[in-house]
Amino acid sequence: MSWGRTIACALAVGLAGCSSPAPPSASTPAADGPVARTADAPTPEPEPAAEGAELAGAEGAEPAPEPAAAPPVEDPWLRGLMAEHKGFRKVLADPERYRMQVLVTVIMPGEDGPVVVEHPYRVDAEYIYPASAIKTFAAVGALRTLAQLADEGQRVGLDTPLAYCETGRERCTIDHDESNLEGGTITVGHEIRKMQLVSNNVSFNRLYELVGHRELNEMMWALGFESVRIQHRMYGVQDPLAQRTTPRVELRPAKGKAVVIPERVSDLELPPLPFTPDQLLLGVAYIDDETHSRVDEPLGFAPKNYVSIRDLHRLALAIARPDLPGVPDLGLTPAHRKHLLASMTDNPAESSNPVYADMDNGLRYKTMIGGMLEELPITRLRYVGKAGRAYGFHLDNAYIEDTKTKRAMVVTAVAYANANGVLNDNAYEYDGITRPFLRNLGQVLARAVLVEGEGT
Question: By CB distance 3.0 to 4.6 Å, which of 19, 25, 179, 420 could disulfide with 354?
Fold first, then answer.
């Protein structure tokens, strides 16, 4: 098989076609949202970035002029909900400082099918670091890779053992995982569970290495997620070449020959982000990952992972509600989608494989649910999500449904809190700003949408 490119293509609203997985242009507007209508005020088309925008790392490139962006939309219904709750006063008073963005899609049962309405608040108004929320794209990529191999006649699946070879070594020695109580081996299915249940970084890195740097990015672009830029693992050396290099991986089915994915060095140059260079500089100083010393200048996010709030939102819709019109088709088999959904739904404290024996509250990984439980009992809530937290950014991306009434919504939200302006010092205001923000958002939305049936 060819590991150079993935050419599968899915329908996505607003895309004329995606038969070629060519890199998306920074000046290409994002695809329209997968909703029937937008409440009160339509989201304006974003202004295209200027041509010739600086490519990260490219020598001699001229900085692009700052684009004339339209003012961010503040949906009256959504902003009104937050304004009525005193817990939002601080962030609403200065949403730019907190890089506050929220996108809600309300899904109500109707006689002729679901009624779907979108409510945006400052969506993609400025750069945000997606942290671990981006990991779900790696799960989709790994599942599609398995399906592609199976279509070619290989006997591989969710439980096929994997082995990883360190660079320069003939034997693949990394092949055991004691947390997998069903065989003790590394498998795609088990790595997805660990990654989605408790945001395991090693699991993300293994799936990233299975799919490959070029393949993962091009696969997501072909599916319509044009904003995706997966540039690096969740930790490791800062060298871009090392991040684009993935080791040999072997899939070892019980019967038949092993499937060998060779070591790869991706030559894919990712397009620049749709922001000016200055917009990708955060803070006043940072702690260097390698030297652990303070550098008194802003931290540049141009070489870091990125995905827009809108594409995160579309991913959640595609996983949880593929029945809705305009939702991207991820091309997952029913069994693969079921496994991913369970991994994003289960309470890790109640997981039988892997087992987290010392975990008191697995619901902390579902950041908005605390507020929702003020309005509805846990027995009625179906919460399918993946949160993320890093560099002061705190996100959640979740589908939430009242299983009794079938009222539902997808909520993608982010806030940033870093009072001292120093990045990578672990002195962020998660407890004082971002956790209360997400909890309060969960409460007001659960009351309005799931209990009172508002939003359409």
Answer: 179
